[in-house]
Design brief:
The complex is a heterodimer of chains A (about 120) and B (about 375). Chain A contains four helices and nine strands, in the order E-E-E-H-E-E-E-E-E-H-H-E-H. Chain A is α+β, with helices and mostly antiparallel strands and about 120 residues long. In chain B, helix 3 packs across helix 4. The chains are: A alpha+beta (about 120), B alpha+beta (about 375).
Chain lengths: ~120, ~375
């Protein structure tokens, strides 16, 4: 059963069998505006929590996306190279950015669940 | 130029709030950046129909008095005495080193009355500079408090007419005072036909409401204003031009007529003439990144051998051309359109080609 976590940096992770799918939240995409380019990490890249590993670029500005936990990138969302606006239209599902294998599942304990994240936004 | 603390508020701020604007700080102002349609749709809407911009952050400065023309010809590289009434001119405030303190549009309203439109970020400085030059002349310099609206796009003239203001007689770069407290010119910052209208806020509100009731017109925020002007190849002071750049290297020589250069009455004329004699070392050019990745202001440019070859001063995505667009400075020897250079972005070297400006053709109504 997948469980979804949220970070202070407005990212989400859906964790299933030790693999996290990572994206930015709907709130984040709305703040950024129309995305025109997404720069994603390659599979195999080892990342540490807090590393800037991806960049989402709107018409006006580039913004970093951070690794929410330690681990290794296993896949990136290929669809975004031809259609970055998928992040705007579907931030928390089809607009996912990359998948990663967690190296320390205990790091998930420090993240918010959906209710806590929603409360933070309110 | 954008300060973290936005202290000044637009007189029509409540209208922007009601329209769902997302606000941000720019040049000390709390400005609408985008509306719910988003920058992409806003940008395209201006090129297809008409967009309404609140540009009240920009500063209008009235210059009047018997020696106002002489004063302006000293302060700026312009032939103010020879400017016909109703004519506007793009020009600059230069420092003694011919560096660009600001870029301006000056319109002759009548015999000894001129209107200067200055950038928000430089408004206080500009006023001080004009006042200091004016100390030697019989004229006054007055900063005006106005709501300033820009209506831009192919439907601008018709939408304005339907709102009760028929200014079809104005052609590009002309302006007038249609009634006390008002100033209207056919000009803009998008590359499209359009008007800029300054007026008292109590009159601006009904005009904006009337224009917005027209289905062809919608509010456009600062984000689209920036992508529109960048596609149109127009400079943003503070990015593409500043006191370290001069009109020759900025490729804005066209704005300074030959007889004004020769008369050399303006501040900075001496240095400017020596720059012209030896030729500017670098030149502002359009830059087209290969592929989809935007290249932003501040990115260093290198040549094929990896040697430093300039810098990007504005960069983003061009919704109308549907690819990234940028401007920057490169050595004169590398300024030919088609020259392949590389921009350094996050440790990568992205191919970027010198490209003619503008990226989208200007569609001014020249009459």
């Amino acid at each position: 059963m997948a469980k979804t976590y949220f970070t202070e940096d407005h990212e989400w992770l859906r964790v299933e069998n030790g693999i996290a799918t990572v994206g930015i939240t709907d709130y984040a995409q709305e703040q950024l505006g129309d995305l025109v380019f997404v720069d994603l990490p390659e599979a195999g890249k080892a990342v540490s929590k807090g590393d800037a590993v991806a960049v989402v670029e709107s018409v006006k500005a580039a913004s970093d996306v951070y690794a929410p936990v330690d681990g290794e990138v296993t896949e990136r969302n290929q669809e975004l190279s031809s259609d970055p606006s998928l992040v705007n239209s579907s931030a928390e599902s089809n607009g996912w950015l990359w998948k990663m294998k967690l190296s320390d599942e205990s790091q998930l304990d420090g993240l918010m669940d959906e209710a806590a994240y929603k409360a933070k936004l309110a | 130029m954008s300060g973290a603390e936005a202290s000044r508020h637009l007189p029509l701020e409540d209208m922007h709030e009601a329209a769902g604007a997302r606000f941000g700080a720019f040049a000390g102002w709390h400005m609408p950046i985008t509306y719910p349609a988003g920058v992409m749709k806003e940008h395209l809407h201006v090129r297809e129909k008409a967009g309404l911009f609140d540009i009240s952050h920009m500063q209008l400065i009235a210059v009047e008095g018997p020696e106002s023309a002489a004063m302006l010809s000293r302060a700026s590289p312009i032939d103010a005495e020879g400017l016909p009434a109703g004519q506007s001119k793009y020009t600059f405030l230069l420092n003694e080193r011919a560096g660009i303190i600001d870029d301006l549009i000056i319109t002759r309203l009548g015999g000894d009355r001129f209107m200067v439109v200055a950038n928000a970020g430089n408004a206080a400085r500009d006023k001080t500079e004009f006042e200091s030059v004016a100390a030697d002349f019989n004229c006054s310099v007055t900063a005006l408090e106005r709501v300033f609206l820009a209506l831009q796009g192919p439907a601008a003239e018709s939408a304005l007419k339907d709102a009760g203001l028929d200014f079809g007689r104005l052609v590009f770069m002309t302006g007038m005072e249609p009634q006390p407290g008002w100033f209207i010119s056919r000009s803009g910052y998008t590359g499209e036909d359009g008007f800029e209208i300054a007026l008292p806020s109590e009159e601006a509100r009904p005009l904006a409401e009337k224009l917005l009731a027209d289905e062809r017109v919608m509010w456009i925020g600062l984000a689209a204003r920036d992508s529109l002007r960048l596609e149109a190849g127009l400079c943003l002071h503070g990015n593409d031009i500043d006191e370290s750049t001069d009109p020759a290297s900025a490729a804005l020589l066209w704005a300074i007529p030959k007889h004004v250069r020769e008369a050399a009455k303006f501040r900075g004329a001496e240095v400017f003439s020596s720059i012209l004699q030896k030729g500017a070392d670098e030149k502002r050019v359009g830059l087209k990144p290969e592929g989809r990745q935007p290249v932003r202001a501040g990115a260093p440019i290198v040549d094929a051998d990896g040697k430093p070859a300039g810098r990007v001063t504005s960069g983003g995505f061009g919704p109308s051309v549907n690819h990234p667009v940028a401007m920057g400075y490169v050595p004169k020897s590398l300024a030919e359109p088609g020259t392949r250079l590389f921009a350094e972005v996050r440790g990568n070297r992205l191919p970027i080609d010198v490209h003619p400006l503008p990226f989208t053709p200007h569609r001014y109504r020249k009459g």
